[in-house]
Specification:
alpha+beta, 5-stranded antiparallel beta sheet, single chain, Jelly Rolls, Arc Repressor Mutant, subunit A, 4-stranded antiparallel beta sheet
Length: 291
Amino acid sequence: MQAAPNAPDSPSVDRLSSLLERFRVHAHLFHAGVLCGVTHFAAQPGRGFLHVLRRGDMVVTHRARSGAPRKLKVDEPTLLFYPRPLEHDFHNAPGDGADFICATLDFDGGLMHPLVQALPPMLALPLAQVDGIEQTLALLFAEASRVRCGQRLLADRLFDVLMLQLLRWLLDHPDEAGIQEGLLTGLSHPKLARALTRVHECPGQAWSLEAMAHEAGMSRSAFAAEFKSALGTTPADYLLRWRVSIAQEMLRSGASVKKVSDALGYASASAFSRAFAQMAGASPRGWLGSL
């Protein structure tokens, strides 16, 4: 299956807003400037990293069996994106005068965030490949270069913008980013994206296979086969996972099981609890009590 890399072929729907409104990503600038020798970045629950090297070179290392390259030489302006907790080290990072900034990324839901689940452990993308980020980077580095009123707040918001631009690019170029299967591959598909976006917007609707296929403008059999090929799961399993992810966020926020059940379209709280346990391995109350 080929992704739709060019704007004219891309789905004419907003594929990100409904997703990120429910599961937000919060960026926080924590470093700008020089790094000396070896700099270690520890893995913390629910936290990722976004590093931008605008000039210079360095070596990045990861632990064995982490899913990321053991050793990576970065010798051009590059964006390093870690969507999930992953230890990494920078060796001989750029010195004086280097344009180098780092932000932490806190994902609502931690490892259950749909994008965290959909992305590889790390992405190293040369800035020249990611169209449309030049102005954002210029503003970001300008804010990071000197202290002004509201500097940190504005830098955090600019990192949010950069993150959104990066996700847009990944949706249109999953093959170039090495994303073979999962949510981003599905959202890059012109027809599947319409069904996925509607499911994200209206999780409590009565979503049968026929209803989802209708949104995609496909037959049931063609939709089911294409969906499984792109996302690596069935439409029914994806719907259940999406609903349970939403339910977990609502439960963490203090919503009752009855309220969550009603919001997600289940006939009863007991029906919702059975579906939740099927995916989460525990009842809603049992899962909440284990946190």
